[in-house]
Write a structure and sequence with these properties.
mainly alpha
């Protein structure tokens, strides 16, 4: 299927889900790396070591880059998988310590948005083809 023939609602759904996902992930990366008070409080509650915030911040930034930069479909797949584990793992961690649903529904929702973005994305060859055509024209 050609990207130009993809329905407008499907393209908008992909762009919307991906925009929300990338925004959350980029902001989360910054928060983790800056170790803002919210991150410190959550990590303390979950009994995670603070150095894990650095690992998560770098991984989230790398995931954003892998999704945004065209031409690396395998890295993009790994990024989506990693973000699914990040957000699913955050929800599972909150559930494991007995937190209320309002605490773990957000991360669970972002795991769902990650899967939606992945499922709605056009094939890599279609995205690259569109970029090549636009740059030549």
């Amino acid at each position: 299927m050609n990207l130009e023939k993809t329905s407008r609602p499907a393209r908008l759904a992909y762009l919307g889900a991906t925009g929300v996902l990338l925004t959350e992930t980029l902001v989360g990366s910054y928060w983790d790396l800056a170790r803002i008070s919210h991150v410190r409080e959550v990590f303390e509650r979950l009994e995670y070591p603070m150095y894990f915030a650095t690992i998560m911040g770098v991984a989230k930034a790398a995931a954003v880059a892998a999704i945004v930069v065209p031409g690396f479909p395998r890295a993009e797949e790994w990024a989506y998988a990693g973000l699914t584990f990040v957000y699913g793992g955050a929800a599972a961690s909150h559930i494991a310590v007995g937190d209320e649903p309002k605490t773990w529904l957000g991360p669970l929702g972002f795991a769902g948005i990650t899967l939606a973005s992945w499922a709605l994305r056009p094939a890599a060859s279609q995205r690259l083809g569109l970029l090549r055509r636009r740059s030549v024209a």
